[in-house]
Amino acid sequence: MLDYDPATCAIGGAVAILGDRPTFLVLREAFMGVRRFGDMLRRTAMPRQVLADRLAHLVAEGLLRKAAYRDAGQRTRHEYRLTAKGLDLYPVLVALMQWGDRYAAGSAGAPILLTHRDCGEPVTLGLVCGARHELDSARDVTPLPGPGARKIA
Amino acid sequence: MLDYDPATCAIGGAVAILGDRPTFLVLREAFMGVRRFGDMLRRTAMPRQVLADRLAHLVAEGLLRKAAYRDAGQRTRHEYRLTAKGLDLYPVLVALMQWGDRYAAGSAGAPILLTHRDCGEPVTLGLVCGARHELDSARDVTPLPGPGARKIA
DNA sequence: CAGTATCCCAAGCGATACTG
DNA sequence: CAGTATCGCTTGGGATACTG
Question: What is the pLDDT of residue B76?
């Protein structure tokens, strides 16, 4: 067991930003290409206030940005788009989806299939080491103190 | 944009089980090898009640199991260990950690380094397709309706 | 349409004390 | 040591109404 400092572990920091359930759902919608307030409201079925809060939070954290756009002949509206920081969260969402497909899904199978845009093959998330070995389980990983390690408790 | 049914997306199911911040922290500790109530209490600095709740929840969901053990000459105690279902959550935690190291960490760098047990090389989580292409971004992924798809909203 | 304002109520936190 | 019991209090959810 690694003797690391829980306070510095990045999981805590990440979870502090991502926060709670509604936030994850908003991010899911964003990755699915939903960009408008009303669409998110309908699809996530969360109260307006909650959605507004989470969107504001995600914008403040730099995961989403508010972008103006105008359809021809319409007045200006705006939409929420993922920033680079937000896009980099993709593995987290995919990992959740893969686990959910396996353990929290109905018997019907995965409702969404991720495929490689270039070749069409299904995409999965996996652990790979620097020597290109593919690891199957958490048991194949040894955690060590990193550059920013401070051992405490 | 994929026209999927938000209600059946496995991300929702996964997040419904994993729940909230404290739950993630408990899981983090479990993956770090912390198994005892008191250790988790001290390291996560959460109220006893909250920890007890989350542990019970994770046991009920089948992510942790309570195992009895006895050190020589001591009375029986028990500890919390990850089940297979819990261990399979590892990519989620690693993904959170990688993102946190990049965006939520101090300047000191990652406090924890994951290495391959067999060869010692650093381990990373990545998207790979069936044709062994490595994908860099969410933009390289095309979501399609899967076997369990029901399109609604 | 895209939010903000308001209000009420339920859930959950945090502290302290107690039990096996 | 490993929890359970209790409690005050704050946070945050959910509904409704209002504004640009």
Answer: 78
Both tokens assigned to B18:
């994993």
pLDDT value at residue B105: 80
pLDDT for A11-37, tens place per residue?
999 999 997 999 999 999 999 999 999
**Spatial distance from the CA of B58 to the C1' of D12 (Å):** 23
How much is the pLDDT for A153? 60
Write down the residue that tokens 């969260």 correspond to.
A89
Q: Whole-model pTM?
A: 0.95
CB atoms within 10 A of CB B29: 23
Which protein residues have any CB–strand C distance under 7 A? Answer: A 36-39, 48-49, 52, 55-56, 66, 77-78, 80; B 20, 22, 46-50, 53
For A60-64, B116-120, B138-142, B147-151, which range has the lowest pLDDT when averaged over its residues? B147-151
Average pLDDT of the segment spanning B35-55: 97
Closest CA to A111 of B102, B10, B19: B10
Mean per-residue pLDDT, A87-106: 95
- The answer to whether the CB of A113 falls within 8 A of the CB of B145 is yes
For residue B30, list chain A residues with Cβ-Cβ distance below 8 A. Answer: none
**Which of B19, B44, B111 shows the shortest C-beta gap to A146?**
B111
User: Which residues of chain A lie closer than 8 angstroms to B116, CB-CB?
Assistant: 129-131, 133, 135, 140-142
Nearest CA to CA, how far is A75 from chain B (Å)?
23
- A146 burial (CB, 10 Å; 0-12 / 13-18 / 19+) is buried
Residue A47, nucleotide of least CA–C1' distance: D14
Tell me which H or E stretch contains B115. Answer: strand B112-116
Mutation for testing the A interface, residue in B99, B117, B141 having most A CBs under 10 Å: B99
Which carries the bigger pLDDT value, residue B7 or residue A114?
A: A114
**Res. A73: pLDDT tops 70:** no
What is the residue whose two structure tokens read 């019970």?
B56
